[in-house]
Specification:
It is a single chain. This protein has 99 residues and is of the alpha+beta class. Helices cover 28% and strands 15% of the residues. It has a single domain, classed as 3-Layer(aba) Sandwich (Glutaredoxin), CATH 3.40.30. Strands 2-1-3-4 form a 4-stranded mixed β-sheet, sandwiched between helices. A hairpin with a 5-residue loop joins strand 3 and strand 4.
Amino acid sequence: MIKIYGMSTCPDCTFVEAQVKGDSRYEIIDIGQHVKNLKAFLRLRDTHPAFDGAKRVGAIGIPCFVLDDGTVTLVAEEAGLHSRPTADGAACNLDGSGC
């Protein structure tokens, strides 16, 4: 099962979530729904190099995909999904840009 860390208020996350609705191959983990979800995500974000680029530009790093083999990626296509079109506008960054 592919785990997807995200938030219901993130446009990139809701775009991905719509694609996997009802698909048992994916598990959505909303980091804003419960502190245990946030802690699990922060543990991953703080230690995994897949987030280095996101942190460098002030992005949160969601949606995040943990593939069946343990691979961590921020690229929806690597999880068999589509990314939100860039023409739809930038997602939110920690610095407030793109919101």
